[in-house]
Structures are given as C-alpha cells and as structure tokens.
Design brief:
Elements: E1 2-5, E2 11-14, E3 26-32, E4 38-48, H1 51-73, E5 90-94, E6 97-104, H2 120-124, H3 132-151, E7 164-167, E8 172-175, H4 187-205, H5 229-239, H6 252-263, H7 273-283, E9 294-296, E10 318-319, E11 332-333, E12 351-352, H8 401-404, E13 408-410, E14 416-425, H9 434-442, E15 447-455, E16 460-468, H10 472-482, E17 486-487, E18 492-494, H11 500-504, H12 507-512, E19 515-522, E20 525-533, H13 543-552, H14 559-563
Antiparallel strand pairs: 1-2, 2-3, 3-4, 4-6, 5-6, 7-8, 9-18, 10-11, 12-17, 13-14, 14-15, 15-16, 16-20, 19-20
C-alpha cells in the first residue's frame, strides 16, 4: 500500500493494484481517506505542469471538496445540482507538478449491476423504453448541472454521453470525468460546452441517430416543427440554424429556465401533457413510468446549500408522470431533492436479533425477543439449484425491485398490502448504529433494495430492506455476529403521498409509535422489515396487526420472488 499526501493536508492509503488501468490519460486506484472513506485516486500518466491548469484544478477542488464533504456530513445529497457532479476533492502535487487527483466514488444508483457506469448513450439507444416525462425531467437535470458549472465559471470540456450517467428509478443525472474542469475564459471552450449541452438535450428529448459520415461530428437531423417554439429557438441558436454564430449558443441557465417553462406546470409539481405528447409522437412510444422511490425516516426537506456559493433555484418537486384522469394517477418523485435515493434515515429504534426472526423494541420501551423459524420459502421450478443463490458469481437474480419484491402480499391476518414505492440505496446510512455499519462494511455488503407497502385501507406502512452480499458466508457472519446486540436500521417511506408523513414526523413522535420489526437471513441476502400505523398510533393492542405484515414479508422477498415463476 502506498500513502500519498493531498493538497488539503490529508493523506490517502492507496491500493497497490490498479482499480482501472485502461484509460489513456490516467491509472485509477482505490484509496481511503483518514476517516476510512473509500475514494478513487486518479494518477495521471503525464503530470500537469502548466501553472494556469494547476490553479484551475485547485479552484475546482476547493469547490468540489466543500460540496462533497458537506453532503457527506449531512448523511447524503441535500438535493443541490452541484452534488450531481463527481468533483475532485483533493490534488496530489509532486515537485511542483500535478501528479493526480482524488475523487469520490460514483454513487451506486448510477452503476449497472456489473459495476460499469450507466451512460447516457444507453438511454438514447432504447428510446422506446423511456417515457417522455422521464426524458424531459432528465433534460432539465442536465441543464441544472451545466448551470452549476457555468455559474462558477468552470468549463468541463467534454459534456458527452460517456461522461453523463443516469439512473432508471428517477430522471436524475451524474456528471463524471471532472478531475480537471478549467476556469478558462477562451470563447471556444465556453461555447463548446454550450454546444455539447444542446446535443445532450436534443438527443435526450428527441431520440435521433443524427446525420454525418463515419468519423464526422454528430449533427441533428432537424428540429420538429411542432416542438414548442421556445425550445425550437434555443436549438436554432445552438446549431447555427438561421445564421447564428457560436457566441449565440444558449447558456445552461436559458436551457434550464426554458425547459421548466415548457414541460412543467408553473408550480413545478407536474409535467405538461400537451408538451410531452409532442415528444411521444417523435419517439413513437408511450413508456410506463417507474415507481416512486423511497425516502428514509428523518430525510430532510431540501436544506440550504453549503456556505460560500449560491445554488440555482430548484422546483419543489417534479411529477414522475403527467397527471391523468384514471384512478392510477402516477405518484410524484422529489427531484428538487436531487439524489433522493441517497437521502439517509434517522434511526427509529433498537433491534435485537436472536433467531431466524426477531422483534424490535416496542414503542413503550419494553423489549420482546422472540426466537422462531420462518416458513419455508415458496418453492421454485423443479430442477432449479438454490445453491446458486449463495454466491454472487452464480446468482442470476436481477437486483431490481420487481425481481426482489412482490407487487403485493397478504399477511397472516388476511390483510392485503401493495407495493407503493421502492428504490436502490447504498448499504450504509449515517443513522444506522455503528455496529450495523461496521458489520455491513466488514462483510462487504454490496447494495440494498428498499420497498414500502401500504395495506388496502392505507393505515399501515410496512418497510423492507434487502441487502446483498458476495456470498452466504458474509451474510451469515453478519447475521450471527449481530445476535444479542442492540441494532439500529432504517425505515423507508414514499417520497410523497400517503405514508410520506411518517418520515416527516419528529423523532419524539416516531419513537413513541407502536411498531413491529423483524429480520432474517437467507442465501447471500439479509432482510429487515418494519411496520407501523401511518398515524403513528401508540397502542400495544395494535401490535398483532403490525407483526403480521412485518413477519410475512420476510418470507416473500429476495430471489425466491423472482425464481418461483421461472
């Protein structure tokens, strides 16, 4: 292991073996900062020697460090578009030249199951699978991110599809390859960023292969005549239609403001169906909306930005789909809170695991520990080898909500629950107890899927967490190691609508509410459930109504949910 010192004064323990060595400009290594936080060290193949370039990198690092560390101290992204950028957070100088850069790891929500980044060109390649509202929301987010760079006088230099990541749960984006955004004032650099942004917006809104011979720059095949004239005008200026020169290319602020005005209602809460219908006509599809993601107990409303800079104005919320008159009007996603799937929970109670399942402490403060055996999992198709589910290398279960979580279930009391929201999360959240965090980290927890269910009367909320590990060895080690210890896990709610009020309640009220919580381990997975009344009722006589769903759900989630129909 090698130790390198950053310009910030912190040192980093760098792995000996490269994490990624195929890049033409750098070799990347995993490293850890003094707090044990995993980072990425990008060692340049050719050190940066120019004083202006080094100073530009330093300015980007100062802003990036302030932004990233403030978000991490708060337990996750606060929702500012600035936090959707993979900023450099430290520089490594050697004998007056810039040898490398330290970066945060890319959030898991923007990675594919094999760990590779989910780049924007993958969305462009499958326009028929992506709803128009999703593409409009993503175009707005792209503009917001570019707006942050532009307002800080940073130039990225390569706003291309390979450097923009997205996630399927909500129209959110994340900008990478920002190890050296410059503060150059050259017109070419500024206007190149503006052209690149226009291309990103065009190809996201209007799936179009474009024109141009092999090896030639991409060119739009044309701007639809029925597109809103305000958007058409920006594309004309961006692509030089009507004699416009490079200096007429729209700024990120113009894109952000115009796209909001065209595709969102004035309050920013819903999309405009008429504007989306135009996008649908040109994409030739009507894709379904992804479900609303979950948000954890104690998730803050959008707080103010870190001191020293001004964030662009964000709408309070975007809708996940246009409003309709049907009974299945889509729920809303909080996109003003940028990375809502990374917002961390406030813990709600202690957990004591002593057997296959174990009840958490009751709201009244008395602990009821029950050792029991769960019902056998639903049988799968004859011949399926369940041993394959014990290792990541042989487990073919997709890590998706549809694979791991049933759409609905009926508990032991005959009450039916329906899944209302879900979302992939990082394994560790700041409000988990330290023993839980350590156990998850030491046993190499890979990812977590959360789900929220409501009963048919919309009175009871049941939250579930599904954790995945490299093998059943790590899952069993964690589960057995935590037996007999007080444990604090997280509970999740829809970001909006029925059930969201639970996560918005103050902690005193939450701690007093009657609830039931259980945990179990199976294959390479660990499950944690939690049920309580949405009105936060305090009544011990209600415990059987809560225990029924919190125990039942444990037998239905995980890979058996996927393979039982195969």
């Amino acid at each position: 292991m090698v130790v390198v010192a950053g310009l910030s004064g912190e040192s980093y323990d760098v792995d000996n073996e490269p994490f990624y060595a195929a890049g033409s400009r750098s070799v990347q290594y995993l490293c850890r900062d003094p707090r044990g936080q995993q980072r990425l060290y990008k060692l340049y193949r050719t050190p940066v020697t120019g004083p202006d370039a080094i100073e530009s990198a330093r300015q980007a690092m100062l802003f990036g460090r302030q932004t990233v560390l403030a978000a991490e101290a708060a337990g996750g992204s606060t929702g500012d578009a600035a936090q959707a950028v993979n900023w450099p957070i430290d520089l490594v100088l050697h004998e007056g030249v810039l040898a490398g850069t330290v970066l945060p790891l890319i959030p898991m929500d923007f990675l594919q199951q094999d760990g590779r980044p989910r780049t924007l060109d993958q969305l462009w390649a499958a326009p028929g699978q992506v709803a128009s509202y999703f593409r409009a929301g993503l175009a707005i987010r792209l503009s917001d991110i570019a707006r942050v760079l532009e307002e800080r006088q940073f130039v990225h230099g390569d706003l291309s599809a390979k450097n923009v990541l997205w996630q399927p749960a909500a129209p959110l984006a994340y900008l990478i390859d920002t190890a050296g955004p410059t503060t150059l004032d050259a017109a070419y650099e500024r206007f190149k960023d503006r052209y690149d942004l226009a291309v990103l917006v065009y190809r996201t809104l209007l799936p179009d292969a474009g024109a141009g011979a092999p090896g030639q720059p991409w060119q739009p095949s044309g701007v639809p005549a029925d597109l809103d004239p305000r958007v058409r005008a920006l594309f004309d200026r961006a692509f030089g239609n009507g004699g416009f020169g490079p200096d007429a290319r729209p700024s990120a602020t113009e894109w952000s403001d115009t796209l909001r005005a065209v595709y969102l209602t004035p309050d920013g809460a819903n999309y405009v169906p008429e504007a989306l219908a135009v996008l649908d006509r040109h994409a030739g599809q009507q894709a379904s909306a992804p479900a609303i993601p979950t948000v954890a107990f104690g998730s803050p409303t959008t707080p103010g930005p870190p001191a020293g800079w001004s964030a662009p104005q964000q709408p309070a919320a975007y809708s996940t789909a246009p409003q309709s008159n049907s009974a299945n009007t889509a729920l809303k996603v909080i996109l003003g809170v940028l990375l809502v799937v990374l917002v961390i929970a406030i813990a709600v109670g202690a957990v004591v695991l002593t057997g296959k399942d174990s009840d958490k402490n009751s709201a009244a403060g008395t602990s009821t520990t029950t050792t029991t055996t769960t019902a056998p999992p639903t049988s799968t198709t004859a011949g399926f080898d369940k041993n394959t589910l014990n290792k990541q290398s042989t487990d073919k279960t997709p890590f998706t909500a549809d694979a791991l979580l049933p759409q609905s279930f009926t508990d032991s009391k005959g009450v039916m629950f329906t899944r209302r929201s879900f979302g992939p999360k990082d394994c560790v959240s700041s409000n988990m107890s330290q023993n839980v965090k350590t156990a998850l980290q030491n046993n190499k927890c890979q990812q977590m899927m959360t789900g929220v269910y409501l009963d048919s009367s919309e009175k009871i909320l049941t939250s579930i967490e599904v954790f995945a590990f490299p093998s059943n060895t790590e899952a069993e080690t964690l589960y057995n190691g935590l037996k007999g210890q007080d444990q604090i896990w997280d509970v999740w709610c829809p970001t909006q609508g029925v059930g969201s009020s639970v996560c918005q309640a103050n902690t005193d009220t939450l701690f007093k509410a009657t609830y039931s919580s259980w945990g179990s381990q199976e294959y390479r997975y660990l499950y944690e459930s939690y049920s309580l009344y949405i009105n936060l009722a305090v009544d011990s006589s209600l415990e059987p109504n809560l225990e029924a769903p919190s125990r039942t759900i444990l037998n239905l989630v995980g890979p058996d949910n996927y393979w039982k129909t195969r």
